[in-house]
């Protein structure tokens, strides 16, 4: 598998030797105020990086959190951290220093990791839904089903699946020729945005892009939906209303994480399709906010709604304060 990926990446480097430089875009129509607009973006990046780093730190350090649910939460935080880092340099570079140029290879690399980590987040959310399904529907076998080895295997499968679908997407972008305006609509390289600038036939790229979305985020969403249908059916069969409430409470954080991932994704698609009359800066701001909402809110949701995470964070902060 590793040799195949390596050979495909070699093809990617040698498929197209044209020298192409794209121009990234900040906030259209707000160029004079871009530095001020960058302040809330910088704040959001800081919250996303610090929040997800804290979640990773407490899960790794606290032995009481070495359970399946928190291992999956650590995977989600690692994915959110990586997703934030994918666009940090280009977004703040454009807003602060007008550093708009990006070559084709760097653009494809950013696109590969950006979409890869986005789809990986969808896969991790599905794994977390499976975790909740097992915990509620088969609690007696929870620890025997979700062993450390199986959790690691799930993580590897999610990673391999997303690499496998993203390598062809990147290869087919590399084979395109670009001869028109090379101005992108965002402060990062987005697949649809890049292929629209091609002056060659990009129908295969469009079909491959749609297939990738449906095979990853689309399929994951339907599996998450199915898992919650089974969870609800199982919970409603419990006689005690107190036990029902307790079971549903264990799912609130995950439902919140699913909502803040899929609602902006669907909203952005609808705005792109039906909101063409909206000013360009609306599309750009929405696209940037969509990428930052999950990394910013996921640590907050899990810190507020999960007592064990909240106590572990307080413990780490108190220890650091005592050391100072």
Automatic annotation (TrEMBL):
One of its GO terms (biological process) is cellular response to lipid. Keywords: Cell membrane, G-protein coupled receptor, Membrane, Olfaction, Receptor, Sensory transduction, Transducer, Transmembrane, Transmembrane helix. SMART domains: 7TM_GPCR_Srsx. InterPro entries: GPCR_Rhodpsn (IPR000276), GPCR_Rhodpsn_7TM (IPR017452), Olfact_rcpt (IPR000725), OR51/52/56-like (IPR050402). It is a multi-pass membrane protein. The keyword Nucleus does not apply. PROSITE patterns: G_PROTEIN_RECEP_F1_1 (PS00237), G_PROTEIN_RECEP_F1_2 (PS50262). The keyword Glycoprotein does not apply. It is found in: Cell membrane; Membrane. Residues 51-302 form the G-protein coupled receptors family 1 profile domain. Belongs to the G-protein coupled receptor 1 family. This is Olfactory receptor. It comes from Cavia porcellus (Guinea pig).
